[in-house]
């Protein structure tokens, strides 16, 4: 059996100008990066009617694998096969994890975006531009303190850390500024992975360069010795930081293995940020395609909810249909089956575990958008299991289709594509979860009850004190961005299925004024991953012709 | 008067395919990055006779400014104006300093390489790829220690630090691995600026991907608890690190303001590394042009010497002529004139300071290569000063020309170009400074006496002990790379002119086994710069159309 990278390398790619031409982009509307990648020049002058917006999300992720990106890519190819001009809008992968565990974020099998090596490695340099911009801001902060500290920044209250696009646990907690008076002011610091940078969220929510600069200027960098917030605007470096992102803000164009256009741009964490690709990328896909298929990170409780409540208001367009990806394996895992036993038929566990899928269906339906379930079929799934799961969904009156795009490419998602077209053309009315301007507590309670299926929200003493401060500072009605484990609907990663009557515990809040939301932290959220005992890097190689092995 | 960025922005650029075609490169031999930048696909299949190689170097740099890059670019345009197909090969600028002090590394006035904003910012991502590769290796080292430390690496003897392409003094000395057992093993660490990474030197000396991987594997990362050296090969990640540099190894093609081809690739420090652009870039320029004009960092005592002694043996081609750039201002500064008084005519100081130029002429002549002096004329230079300096050079029997490329572009360097053509076509025989295989002490003594004009080399106790160890390990006959202040021929930055009978003090050695040389450290070499009190970043901005101001 061929690996993903072998399938990818065996498929001749079309020149990117040809892919661009398929959606009416002329050579001067794109900026090539090599022969098979390009950035799309902004502002885009296309003004045809916006396409239909399809959001692909999933059940809670499990170690069994759901294949959300693979389904999304297959769906795009499937829609194109049915004659609907479709443009994908995906998130940009982070390079850090690539060196740790095998497996990229570019789909799999015969449903991939290509060139997959480049997309998973440096791509068009967006992540590196974000790293450079983020750390330049950090250097300017420490330099300000060193050079007289006119803003009276409190070195103990700098909230702007540093970042690298690397899994490097040894940088989580550091002491910097050692070495005497010419080498900075000593203080505690730490590094996050680049995708956790607020700048990534800012980039993904910006409408244009002007909006980007406005958001950058709003970013909270710390507090002064009077405990008052200090922003980038106070430091007067918003222009310089924005300038470093002048190319990163432009969406990237590549192709699927079936030579359909895919935009890959922006990839903020779906826990401490909103987990959706850029507003500009999705807008571009909507302007170029009759259908734009996009995704959100982790499950419908995290990325899905944030797409609806954080991204949609900025995007100015609500989804016309939601695709919920589930697998028999993952639902059996949710039903209590151990990882080693997932290939054995188990209808009872499947029925029990399906509660997780049902919960997510109900969650998404509350937004007033039609839901279609995609069962991403694995070879070990039995016919009885697939039939059982299909019936569970159909009994709810929800459309469902089985997909096999991993083995069959877009042909394996044509049935799903047909159901998505039907759903997206139904009359529907988007309903926000809470009215605009609701306070943070109201928002969190609504999310807990209506999306997670829980009962209540409890605040730590610190979180309570923060909310009071936020009210004084006018931050109390910003959208809330929940930072919660992706593995459970609750804030405890081990509670699978669809728990009820539980409490969400909010430990603390983190204001992300540039992104325009407040992160509510439940439990510990790791913002700098580590490498495993046998990192994938040990098995990678490149030969004299530049052919890569061991990457995926 | 227009600024550099205004002149650059006012000049319409030609499409990079057109620039490539001027030197016979077809569209499939380049990989475009936008419309005016490209990488050249390797291996290059051109096999015409190699062009003439012109090395541009200078007197010791002073705060008065020499304009070496500007002369180089003007010379290239001048040669092209005279009908000689000429390709430039320049170093790639570092982004870190751009945020600190105004002024890029892309020439000035009407002698610039463009698009200057892009070249000075992220360009084609080479620096970022190096940062990522360097820090990925660092993360893999700390992960190895964390995950059982099978190689018994001594955390107190890790020589592989971390890097960022940012001026950030607060990262010079850090403590990492804090936060308990899941967050690494605490140890002292620090960050250098990316151009100081050994990987930059490795990239610049590699002949191809295979050589790059061989060099990466040789890199010394630290010592084990038995004090034995440990390399990248021992860690088994040479393939992964090389793979991250697969695009960075390809030379970048841009154009001058006069639309002549310029290759800009690689830029290692000229003190702790060899300070020359990549071997692949220079080879490519030689394969594409009848003349290849290249440069080396700082003055002839640093970059010039290293070009001859470190780069030339790898390049397999010796220079056909050396251009030594000098200015009246810088020589007056060397003659004792204060910075504020440089615009006042002072023939005596000029004569005294010219000793610096004469020393560098003699140094370069020892390699058996014809020398041409370029007097880069500033508006404040008087006719008498220029005539005096011209006579000093002519009296040595050395060719000399005055240039005004800053004001006049290539037309201002035609006289220089004509003299360079004459010199490069003289019969000449390259003579190395010392025979291949000479030991480190012999090399250092020869450099001190024949290049710096000094008398002797003194080793610290530590350096003496290191040399003994190196002999045991077979490192004692590697080429030596002197790390010395660029401001003086001695190891004391304040001794201007051409001191005599001085001692060079070697504090310690740093083996760079991947690059293939041993760095001899004299005095303190700062490998992570800081930002000034008023960083240039404070004056930068970008408007809604992406137009940049305040960058230069």
TrEMBL record, chains A, B:
ATP binds at residues 62-69. It catalyses: (6S)-5,6,7,8-tetrahydrofolate + formate + ATP = (6R)-10-formyltetrahydrofolate + ADP + phosphate. This is Formate--tetrahydrofolate ligase. Keywords: ATP-binding, Ligase, Nucleotide-binding, One-carbon metabolism. NCBIfam families: PRK13505.1. GO terms for molecular function: ATP binding; formate-tetrahydrofolate ligase activity. Transmembrane segments: none annotated. Pathway: One-carbon metabolism; tetrahydrofolate interconversion. GO terms for biological process: tetrahydrofolate interconversion. Belongs to the formate--tetrahydrofolate ligase family. It holds the Pfam family FTHFS. Its EC number is 6.3.4.3. The lineage of its organism: Bacteria, Bacillati, Bacillota, Bacilli, Lactobacillales. InterPro entries: Formate_THF_ligase, Formate_THF_ligase_CS, P-loop_NTPase. It comes from Levilactobacillus spicheri DSM 15429.
């Amino acid at each position: 059996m061929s690996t993903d990278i072998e399938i990818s390398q065996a498929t001749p790619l079309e020149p990117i100008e040809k892919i661009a031409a398929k959606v009416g982009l002329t050579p001067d509307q794109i900026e090539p990066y090599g022969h098979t990648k390009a950035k799309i020049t902004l502002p885009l002058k296309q003004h045809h009617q916006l396409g239909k917006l399809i959001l692909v999300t999933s059940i809670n992720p499990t170690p069994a694998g759901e294949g959300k990106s693979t389904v999304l890519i297959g769906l795009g190819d499937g829609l194109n096969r049915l004659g609907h001009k479709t443009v994908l809008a995906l998130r940009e992968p982070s390079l850090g994890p690539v060196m740790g565990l095998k497996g990229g974020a570019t789909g799999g099998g015969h449903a991939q975006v290509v060139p997959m090596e480049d997309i998973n490695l440096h791509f068009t340099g967006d992540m590196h531009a974000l790293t450079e911009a983020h750390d330049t801001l950090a250097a300017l902060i420490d330099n300000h303190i060193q050079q007289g500290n006119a803003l009276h920044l409190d070195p103990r209250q700098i909230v702007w850390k540093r970042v690298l696009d690397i899994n490097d646990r040894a940088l989580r907690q550091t002491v910097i500024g050692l070495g005497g008076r010419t080498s900075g002011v000593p203080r505690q610091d730490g590094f996050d992975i680049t995708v956790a940078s607020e700048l990534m969220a800012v980039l993904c929510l910006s409408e244009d360069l002007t909006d980007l600069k406005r958001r950058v200027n709003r970013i909270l960098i710390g507090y002064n010795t009077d405990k008052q917030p200090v922003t980038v605007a106070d430091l007067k470096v918003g222009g310089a930081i924005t300038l470093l992102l002048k190319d990163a803000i432009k969406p990237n164009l590549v192709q699927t293995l079936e030579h359909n256009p895919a935009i890959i741009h922006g990839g903020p964490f779906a826990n401490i940020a909103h987990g959706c690709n850029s507003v500009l990328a999705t807008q571009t896909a909507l302007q170029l395609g009759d259908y734009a298929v996009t995704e959100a990170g982790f499950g419908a409780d995290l990325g899905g909810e944030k797409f609806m409540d954080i991204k949609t208001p900025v995007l100015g367009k609500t989804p016309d249909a939601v695709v919920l990806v589930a697998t028999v394996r993952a639902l059996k895992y949710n039903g209590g089956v151990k990882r080693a036993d997932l290939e054995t038929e188990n209808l009872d566990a499947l029925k029990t575990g399906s509660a997780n899928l049902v919960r997510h269906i109900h969650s998404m339906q509350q937004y007033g958008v039609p839901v279609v379930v995609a069962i991403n079929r694995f070879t070990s799934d039995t016919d009885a299991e697939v039939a059982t799961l299909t019936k569970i969904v159909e009994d709810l009156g929800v459309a469902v289709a089985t997909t096999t795009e991993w083995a069959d490419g877009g042909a394996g998602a044509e049935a799903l594509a047909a159901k998505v077209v039907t759903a997206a053309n139904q009359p529907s009315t988007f309903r926000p979860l809470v009215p605009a301007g609701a306070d943070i507590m109201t928002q969190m309670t609504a999310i807990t009850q209506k999306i997670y299926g829980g009962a209540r929200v409890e605040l730590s003493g610190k979180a309570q004190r923060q909310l009071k401060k936020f009210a004084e500072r006018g931050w109390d009605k910003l959208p809330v961005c929940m930072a919660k484990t992706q593995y459970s609907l609750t804030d405890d990663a081990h509670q699978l299925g669809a728990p009820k009557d539980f409490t969400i515990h909010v430990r603390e809040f983190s204001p992300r004024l540039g992104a325009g939301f407040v992160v509510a932290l439940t439990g510990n959220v790791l913002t700098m991953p580590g490498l495993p005992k046998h990192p994938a890097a040990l098995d990678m190689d490149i030969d004299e012709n530049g052919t890569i092995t061991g990457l995926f």
